[in-house]
Design goal:
It contains twelve helices and five strands. It is mainly alpha-helical. It has two domains: 5-179 and 296-326, HUPs (Rossmann fold); 203-291, Tyrosyl-Transfer RNA Synthetase. The strands form two sheets. A three-stranded parallel sheet has the order 1-2-3. Helix 2 links the parallel strand 2 (36-42) and strand 3. Helix 3 (87-96) crosses helix 6 (123-137) and helix 3 packs parallel to helix 12. The longest helix is centred in the last third of the chain and has 30 residues, at 297-326. The mean pLDDT is 96.
Length: 330
């Protein structure tokens, strides 16, 4: 039986949050048995902001180790580095010529990032979704597991692919976003109406995957809730409590109704410590495995070299086909 293909990636910016884990990585781990999975380190995408070169290299290697520490088996999944496969940038250029400025102008992430980095609105930031489309289309991915914030990028990927196919005939598979119902948007702990983000200036707003158990407990204790003192799911009226319930629900594999029952008649103090303990319990073994892997750089290299090779085989076939279709001599 032919397995369906999955591709996804995380930017190598460091400081990954619980949002990245619950919105992306955690789902990937669950999908590895059923699908043919390609998980990349999006290092080229990070060039859209200014990085210290040494830090970027370190973040890239650490992210590979994190994928494995979180439970991705490097034998079952193709774990690779985006910049090691030149076909990504090659396809990105071609697709740029089939993407309209108007489409890119509508991207909310571009608008947000441009506002945040007003002194560096470079054209890479503008065409960022085209490189992401290339990442996905190169592997004929059926499904792309991401958080809610990437939905619009998946839509533009489909539009670009359909446009290309309609001109040159069936070339790209049209991918679907795979966005979990709960956990697709983990919100900030201090500001539960906006997503938990690596770049949030307030450290209390985000749980980092490298946080110590004490940090995690402290941050949940201080998390913003409301004055009702009743554990009840209502995203609109109770965004803080609902966000904590979402976090707890994913980790404990419980529905919102089950959580409401579990904490019936109990105050927020008890509930918050239960959420904190669930997160600590989940993250501690990942952190330990991560630290262990970081002591073995040879192993990390072995992992990405194996993945790079498998990824290149697939990507090189597709880029050749695309070059041929658009009229390049190959
Ligand atoms: P990035 O690196 O910003 O985020 C990685 C993944 O984490 C998800 N995520 C969240 N999910 C739930 N709640 C949150 N608060 C939260 N914050 C982040 C994101 O939705 C994402 O799934 N452009 C992508 C990286 C990328 C990519 C790709 C993804 C490059 N090429 C191809 C899929 C396919 C990005 O910046 O993700």
């Amino acid at each position: 039986m032919n397995k369906k293909t999955i591709l996804s990636g995380i930017q190598a910016t460091g400081n990954l949050t619980l949002g990245n884990y619950l919105g992306a990585l955690n789902n990937w781990v669950e999908m590895q048995e059923e699908y043919d999975c390609y998980y990349m380190i999006a290092d080229l995408h990070t060039l859209t902001i200014r990085n210290d070169p040494e830090t970027l290299r370190k973040n890239t290697l650490e992210l590979i180790a994190l994928y494995v520490a979180a439970g991705l088996d490097p034998e079952k999944n193709t774990i690779f580095v985006q910049s090691h496969i030149p076909a990504h940038t090659q396809l990105s250029w071609v697709l740029n010529c089939y993407t309209y400025m108007g489409e890119l102008n509508r991207m909310t992430q571009f608008k947000d990032k441009a506002a945040k980095h007003a002194d560096n609105i470079n054209s890479g930031l503008f065409t960022y979704p085209v490189l992401m489309a290339a990442d996905i289309l190169l592997y004929n991915a059926d499904l792309v597991p991401v958080g809610e914030d990437q939905r619009q990028h998946l839509e533009i990927t489909r539009d670009i692919a359909e446009r290309f196919n309609s001109i040159y005939g069936e070339t790209f598979k049209i991918p679907d976003a795979y966005i979990a119902k709960i956990g697709a948007k983990i919100m900030g702990l201090q500001n539960p109406t906006s997503k938990m983000s690596k770049s949030a200036p307030d450290p209390m707003d985000k749980i980092l995957l490298t946080d110590t158990p004490d940090d995690i407990r402290k941050k949940f204790k201080k998390a913003v809730t409301d004055s009702e003192n009743c554990v009840r799911y209502d995203r609109e009226a109770k965004p803080g409590v609902s966000n904590l319930m979402g976090i707890y629900g994913i980790i404990k594999n419980k529905t919102m109704e089950e959580i409401e029952k579990e904490f019936e008649g109990q105050g927020y103090g008890t509930f918050k410590s239960a959420v904190a303990e669930a997160v600590v319990e989940r993250l501690e073994p990942i952190q330990n495995k991560h630290n262990e892997l970081l002591e073995n750089p040879e192993k990390i290299k072995e992992i990405y070299e194996m993945g790079d090779q498998k990824a290149a085989e697939k990507a090189n076939k597709l880029i050749k086909e695309v070059y041929k279709k658009v009229g390049l001599v190959i």
